[in-house]
Amino acid sequence: MFKVTGSGGLTLAADEAGAVSDPNVLLFHGGGQTRHAWGRAIQALAARHWHALTFDLPGHGDSDWAPDGDYGLDVFGANVAGVARQYERPVLVGASLGGLAALAAIGQGLVPDAAGLVLVDITPRFEPAGVARIRNFMRQGVDGFDSLEEVADAIATYVPNRQRPRNLTGLSKNVRQRDDGKWVWHWDPRFMTRIDQGTGEPTAGQYSGDRIRQSARNVKVPVLLVHGASSDVVSPEGVAELKDLIPHALIVDVAGAGHMVAGDRNDNFNNAVIDFLEHTIRPGLAGD
User: 3-class DSSP state for residue 155?
Assistant: First the structure.
């Protein structure tokens, strides 16, 4: 792990794989996750001669917490952009909240030399029922779990299609133990407990739909959307809208994957991203 400066005085934790002389691919996780969500992906990228870096978003993992508890999309977009500007011609890969932040950063011109954008099961339009399911899952950990067994049970209920791990030590990357012995998710609880007085919903990742759509219209770099075919967050209508907003976007549907595409079908996800990088991004970088 190492630290990089983001935006607004925040410092973000990062991991990397591959040679620094190779083209840069920066990966940003979804809300409530950490940089460890990309562990297998960055190794696959490094093996194909890409310099892959993963970052904990503000308030997540080992990154700084926002002093004022503000976790709106502007905060995430500014920090994604602040990191991306430190790397030459980066490709930004973002899942869910990380994808919205990357889309906003590029679409608002905050990363002027970006080489490409990969959105992982996120579009400007998403389904309320799927978002509510994610929020309900995340709320379970705000008060804490008594044991790692309870953490594993909660995850198994949320993603029943995945095999429950026998060794629970790996969960320590996603939770931390408080002084009272309770296990809580590895993110600032204000991410879910700060409530918008108008909507009654968490302010986490709050954004204007019209604003993010305008950001999408402004994106001129190559774009890939990796869509979980079984996702309850991004519907076929959401995919179609993204295609209208970014006509040059390429779409890959991953069968058997829900919203957590990289976790559900990691090999298929890696193959889709690497194929895009090799056939669409690398030739453009070589021509610069």
Answer: helix
Q: Dmax over Cα atoms in the chain, in whole Å?
A: 57
Cα separation, 174 vs 120, whole angstroms: 20
pLDDT of residue 192: 82
CA dihedral 99, 51, 187, 164 (to 10 degrees): 90
Q: Find, among 78, 106, 90, the residue nearest to 212 by Cα.
A: 106
Q: Domain coordinates of the chain in residue numbers?
A: 2-129+201-286
Give the right CATH number for 2-129+201-286 from 2.60.40.10, 3.10.20.30, 3.10.150.10, 3.40.50.1820: 3.40.50.1820
Alpha helices in the chain (DSSP H): 39-47, 73-84, 97-107, 128-139, 148-158, 190-193, 209-218, 236-245, 261-264, 266-276, 282-286
- Reported as a single tens digit per residue, the pLDDT across 147-177 is 999 999 988 888 877 777 777 877 878 889 9
